[in-house]
Amino acid sequence: MDQSREPMLVVIGASAGGMAALKALVAQLPKDFPAPIFVVNHMGAHTTGEALVRVLDQSGSLACMHGHDQQAFESGHIYVAPSDQHMLVADGKILVTKGARENRSRPAIDPLFRSAAVAYGNRVIGIILTGYLDDGTSGMMAIKRCGGVCIAQDPDDASYPDMPQSVIANVGVDYCLPVAKMGALLSELVQRELPKSESAPEDIVIEAKIARRVLSDLPSVEALGDQVPFNCPDCGGVLWQMQEGNLLRYRCHTGHAFTSSALLAQQTVKVEETLWVALRMFEERQNLLVTMSKNESKKTTSSVHQRAKDSQIHIDRIRAMLKATDKDSSSSVE
To answer: Locate the CheB-type methylesterase domain: which residues (predicted)?
Structure first.
């Protein structure tokens, strides 16, 4: 296939504050926009995403819908990743998969961006909008390495600047501008004449293939990085460390992937969950000891009372740790 005749692709990643930013961007695009647009906006597994599809469909001239597995995509259409599933692109079709979470998210931005970079190379335009932490940074690196265009929302224009700031710091974007100016830029970029892309780097190809399967395999992950002495907080598997410039990332062999920031945030969540379990168990133990003391002889009552007091010490310590954990996690958990 002559790649110079293929359409451009626009891939967009957003998180907190994303609906307003996406609405403002979509409203600027003309009805004859000559490229398909793919959107990943972080959402909870319990939501349907219908509200976002409806808002984008009504905000501009382009038809908007959820992406469906094996669906052929068309220029002038917007495809939104469905809830609790990754959306990828390859060979003119959309792929929807229930693969492992990346950066604690499904759908995640990085899998979409990588798949587009591998399949369409320099014909991909990547955009990162408002959001917490740094999902999309690694995917934007893949787009850049494959010759695509990298665009970040001006952090001063973003409701939550973490994601665009991470891309700007780690990737080196081609354009950094407010959402209000992106429509004109996109209309200009999609008209460019481009040479045929070179093949994507092997590590990007491997990660794109991992996203297309529910499970990964050890040889694939071992080819990407070095094993490290701590485990995946989602499945307990061993992690491998990868470094892309200054960005540290981690993968387990089942497919979970994290930036260092996302890994730390997920570890914080797991620590808090463990502390709550420990608190419950110590409180139950104390309640049992108090009940026992009412039925024990005077000789043993003193010992039971002491054990109940010891339990209270542990309870107080765990509560203090939970208060500290709440403060730590408030800035890292969306």
So the answer is: 9-193
Residues 6 or more apart whose CB falls under 8 angstroms from that of 111 comprise 86, 87, 88, 99, 102, 139, 208, 211
Mean pLDDT, range 232-238, rounded to an integer = 93
Write out the catalytic residue numbers.
15, 42, 135
- Write out the two tokens for 111: 């899998």
DSSP secondary structure string for all residues of 67-136: --TTEEP-TTEEEEPPTTSEEEEETTEEEEE----BTTBSS-HHHHHHHHHHHHGGGEEEEE-S-STTTT
Taking only the tens place, the pLDDT of each residue in 173-216 is 999 999 999 999 999 999 998 998 899 999 999 999 999 875 56
Asked whether 13 and 136 are in contact (CB, 8 A), the reply is yes
- Give CA–CA dist 191/186, Å, rounded: 9
Looking from the CA of 71 toward its CB, the CA atoms found within 13 Å total: 19
